[in-house]
């Protein structure tokens, strides 16, 4: 057909690629250097949506580019297949989560194939398959052996109506997101991974990622880990045998501590109020009840009134011997530091707000000055705490020291006196990985009355999920697996006696914390991944995915990589060298996410405009980090451009292999300039600009073809159109493949190789130098703009026209003004 018909191209080339497998990776004997390009794997919750289409179009540009550059590119895909969507569908429609999940995987796989994603289809995996989650269990056992996986009772958010545990995100203003009931706390014994052991390395190794990960993501990780350096201080509380420890970043202000606050929802508060008078206890209970209905964010908000209850107890300041009232309040958090603070109202705003609200004393101990050297106003009057640098006052032996000196001195003294000392505190908590749900990896642990917690031996893995049939999957705070009694009762691997299987399943973030390693050895039945493969491919050179995973997924993947490094299983300590967070696809400002509903259906867009036009639209819409508003882009415009490019190939009349050096110089310069620029643009992740440059090249070729002085038979035209085909192969693979065939080549254009750039064609355009003889213009020369005086003189004097006009006269002088003028004086 003489018309660009995207659907005909799709039908023609898909089967060819299925056969040719241009993106098979790691084949024996393949000598190309390796490179690992990874797209975040999807949840199989329905078909692909526009967000996937954007992410995979961008990842594909990178993967296909490196293939063209001669690399053996590992670009795998799989499915993050455990988790709630499958379970909710199962509960709503009564289908088995596995059946539902695998159907969706097949549907997504078909869509990805049509979308021409450059995945290596021989490496696919789904985390819900026993061959995969068996290795979750294996890794868990290794961590359990090292004490990195452990169980402990913990408070969880509990919805008494839905009878379910809620994640923090599911608690909205103290209420259940789903039913609106007031959320309570419940104690459950749960599994944790000891990520806090890695807090320092997770922070310090970010140095390796500086400049190659978005700054925003690094900042979010840093905040999440929240390292704080300060000191522990032990306070005697009257009537209590054990001293109470507080964490402070300002040990220098110890003399300014005027009261003491414990988190209202801490065990300590409960203990301190236990023997109090009934009136105090009741006030406390009522306050605690009210606080339970608020979120951590609300509790920490600085503009909230500072509420609290005096517990009628006293702590003793270890350096002044002063008695300080002990209060319970909600602005102190139970699970940060030690859940208690020494309050220094003069130098901490929240303490000051509290002191002013409850009539507690304020004592300045650091003399902080403004720029003019004037003391800042008294915090008790100004209601503004002073936190800057200054000189210690009202602090006995510390008086006269500067803040930093005092911090060091007090920390040392506390350590010497056994009253505390320097310490580091983190916001990061151990990772709670227990879920009381069905659709996840069972814990490979057996509980035996005699032996306690027993690891399932490696040779008995996987511990497979029991069939869902007959189990009530609805959330109820107890795992549905507990009802699978035949499955639960087992024998103890240690003593052979009767024992019970652990019935929780793992957080699905465990699955995604190491999937990038499983792609290296997707079918191994002896190891999660081969060490030799890890050496060949790791770390991932480029990771592409949504910013929604900026904290948890990336932190957990980094954590697992470090654990595996320590086990000698991988060399690098960071899994992902470079990270690209693509923007979101929006429709009139609303995100194309699972929850918002897909207003624009990917399938319909592909039907209407063709795969290539949609891919091109995604890539051309703007910088890859920016959101794409579907109302602002033009898939029809993309289609018109592709048709234009496609027609070029049909116009070429020179034969395959025609020598371009005999062709049009100006066109060649455009071609080579665009190819060179496109390479650095793609490597710099500026794909949209690379597309714009390709468009320029298409225009230049069309002009050349229509120009009688060049025309379709010029070998430079063939060279240019072949370059267009290769450039387009990164974005519009069907169109590119068809052009390649029209140009007389065998498939696949994806493996054609990046066009070699002739550096000499990259020199800047020329300028015209005028050559005069005795003031009369005799010749015009095209010269490089940077030409030197001698070179220009030589060129001018070599001109036949100039030589002819000089004739037999003697050259008296040559005036040279590079690059534009030469005047020959004769006589
Ligand atoms: C006394 C003091 C004086 C403080 C002063 C600050 C300024 P970061 O930097 O975030 O680690 N704190 C300690 N434990 C707390 C808890 N569980 N909930 C709420 N606040 C807590 O903060 C450390 C500071 O936050 C500590 O230093 C403590 O107040 C408070 F002029 O101690 B400070
Ligand atoms: Zn036993």
Automatic annotation (TrEMBL):
| Ranges of residues in domain Methionyl/Valyl/Leucyl/Isoleucyl-tRNA synthetase anticodon-binding | 669-786
From which domain of life does this come?
A: Bacteria
- The Leucyl-tRNA synthetase editing domain is annotated at 222-414
- EC assignment: the record states 6.1.1.4
Which Gene3D superfamilies has this protein been placed in? 3.10.20.590, HUPs (3.40.50.620), Isoleucyl-tRNA Synthetase, Domain 1 (1.10.730.10)
Renumbered to this chain, motif 'HIGH' region spans 42-52
Where, by residue number, does ATP bind? 594
Keywords per UniProt = Aminoacyl-tRNA synthetase, ATP-binding, Cytoplasm, Ligase, Nucleotide-binding, Protein biosynthesis
Question: Localized where?
Answer: Cytoplasm
Single GO MF descriptor = leucine-tRNA ligase activity
Q: Where is the Aminoacyl-tRNA synthetase class Ia domain?
A: 428-628
Q: Where is this motif: 'KMSKS' region?
A: 591-595
Q: Which residues form the Methionyl/Leucyl tRNA synthetase domain?
A: 40-182
Q: What does it catalyze?
A: tRNA(Leu) + L-leucine + ATP = L-leucyl-tRNA(Leu) + AMP + diphosphate
In terms of CDD domains, this protein maps to:
Anticodon_Ia_Leu_BEm, LeuRS_core
InterPro entries in the cross-refs: aa-tRNA-synth_I_CS, aa-tRNA-synth_Ia, Leu-tRNA-ligase, Leu_tRNA-synth_edit, M/V/L/I-tRNA-synth_anticd-bd, Methionyl/Leucyl_tRNA_Synth, Rossmann-like_a/b/a_fold, tRNAsynth_Ia_anticodon-bd
Q: Give the similarity note.
A: Belongs to the class-I aminoacyl-tRNA synthetase family.
Among PANTHER family, the record links this protein to: LEUCINE--TRNA LIGASE, MITOCHONDRIAL, LEUCYL-TRNA SYNTHETASE
Query: HAMAP family, per this entry?
Result: Leu_tRNA_synth_B
Protein name as annotated:
Leucine--tRNA ligase
């Amino acid at each position: 057909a003489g018309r660009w018909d995207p659907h005909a191209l799709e039908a023609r080339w898909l089967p060819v690629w299925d056969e040719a497998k241009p993106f098979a990776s790691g084949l024996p004997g393949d000598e190309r250097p390796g490179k690992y390009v990874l797209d975040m794997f999807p949840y199989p919750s329905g078909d692909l949506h526009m967000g996937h289409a954007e992410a995979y179009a961008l990842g594909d540009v990178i993967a296909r580019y490196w293939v063209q550059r001669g690399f053996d590119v590992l670009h795998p895909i799989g499915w993050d297949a455990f988790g709630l969507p499958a379970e909710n569908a199962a509960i709503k429609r009564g289908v088995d989560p596995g059946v539902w999940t695998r159907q969706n995987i097949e549907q997504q796989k078909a869509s990805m194939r049509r979308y021409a994603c450059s995945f290596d289809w021989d490496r696919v995996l789904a985390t819900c398959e026993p061959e995969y989650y068996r290795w979750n269990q294996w890794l868990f056992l290794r961590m359990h052996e090292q004490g990195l996986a452990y169980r402990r009772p913990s408070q969880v958010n509990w919805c008494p109506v839905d009878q379910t545990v809620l994640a923090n995100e599911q608690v909205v203003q103290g209420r259940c997101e789903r039913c609106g009931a007031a959320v309570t706390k419940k104690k459950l014994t749960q599994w944790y991974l000891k990520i806090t052991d890695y807090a320092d390395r997770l922070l310090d190794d970010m140095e390796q990622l500086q400049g190659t990960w978005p700054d925003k993501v690094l900042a979010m990780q840093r905040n999440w880990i929240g390292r704080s350096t300060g000191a522990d201080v032990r306070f005697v509380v009257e009537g209590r045998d054990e001293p109470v420890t507080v964490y402070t970043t300002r040990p220098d202000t110890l003399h300014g501590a005027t009261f003491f606050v414990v988190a209202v929802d801490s065990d300590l508060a409960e203990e301190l109020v236990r023997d109090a008078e009934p009136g105090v206890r009741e006030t406390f209970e009522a306050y605690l009840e009210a606080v339970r209905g608020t979120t951590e964010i609300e509790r920490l908000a600085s503009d909230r009134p500072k509420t609290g209850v005096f517990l009628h107890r006293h702590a003793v300041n270890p350096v002044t011997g002063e008695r300080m009232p002990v209060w319970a309040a909600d602005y102190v958090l139970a699970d940060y530091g030690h859940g208690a603070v020494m309050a220094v109202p003069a130098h901490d705003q929240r303490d000051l707000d509290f002191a002013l609200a409850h009539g507690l004393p304020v004592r300045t101990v650091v003399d902080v000055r403004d720029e003019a050297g004037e003391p800042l106003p008294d915090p008790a009057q100004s209601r503004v705490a002073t936190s800057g640098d200054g000189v210690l006052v009202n602090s006995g032996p510390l008086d006269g020291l500067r803040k930093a000196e005092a911090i060091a001195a007090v920390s040392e003294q506390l350590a010497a006196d056994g009253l505390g000392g320097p310490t580091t505190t983190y916001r990061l908590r151990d990772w709670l990985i227990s879920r009381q749900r069905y659709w996840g990896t069972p814990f490979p642990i057996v509980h035996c009355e005699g032996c306690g917690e027993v690891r399932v031996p490696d040779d008995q893995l996987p511990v497979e999920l029991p069939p869902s049939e007959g189990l009530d999957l609805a959330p109820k705070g107890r795992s549905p697996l507990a009802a699978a009694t035949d499955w639960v009762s087992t024998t103890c691997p240690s003593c052979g006696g009767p024992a019970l299987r652990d019935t929780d399943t793992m957080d699905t973030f465990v699955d995604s914390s190491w999937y990038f390693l499983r792609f290296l050895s997707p079918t191994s039945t002896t190891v999660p991944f081969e060490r030799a493969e890890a050496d060949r491919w790791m770390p991932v050179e480029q990771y592409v995915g949504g910013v929604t995973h900026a904290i948890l997924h990336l932190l957990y993947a980094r954590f697992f990589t470090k654990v595996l490094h320590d086990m000698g299983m991988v060399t690098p300590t960071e899994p992902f060298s470079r990270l690209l967070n693509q923007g979101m696809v929006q429709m009139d400002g609303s995100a194309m996410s699972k929850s918002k509903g897909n207003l624009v259906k990917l399938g319909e867009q592909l039907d209407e405009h063709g795969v290539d036009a949609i891919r091109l639209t995604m890539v051309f819409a703007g910088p890859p980090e920016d959101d794409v508003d579907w109302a602002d882009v033009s898939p029809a415009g993309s289609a018109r451009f592709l048709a234009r490019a496609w027609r070029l190939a049909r116009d070429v009349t020179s034969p395959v292999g025609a020598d371009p050096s005999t062709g049009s110089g100006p066109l060649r310069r455009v071609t080579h300039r665009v190819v060179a620029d496109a390479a650095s643009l793609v490597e710099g992740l500026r794909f949209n600009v690379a597309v714009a440059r390709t468009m320029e090249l298409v225009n230049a070729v069309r002009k050349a073809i229509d120009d009688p002085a060049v025309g379709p038979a010029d070998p430079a035209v063939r060279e240019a159109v072949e370059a267009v085909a290769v450039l387009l192969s990164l974005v519009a693979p069907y169109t590119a493949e068809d052009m390649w065939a029209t140009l007389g080549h065998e498939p696949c254009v994806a493996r054609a190789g990046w066009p070699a750039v002739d550096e000499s064609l990259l020199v800047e355009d020329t300028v015209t130098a005028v050559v005069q003889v005795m003031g009369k213009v005799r010749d015009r020369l095209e010269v490089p703009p940077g030409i030197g005086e001698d070179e220009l003189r030589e060129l001018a004097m070599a001109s036949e026209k100039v030589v002819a006009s000089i004739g037999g006269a003697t050259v008296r002088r040559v005036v040279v003004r590079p690059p534009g003028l030469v005047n020959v004086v004769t006589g």
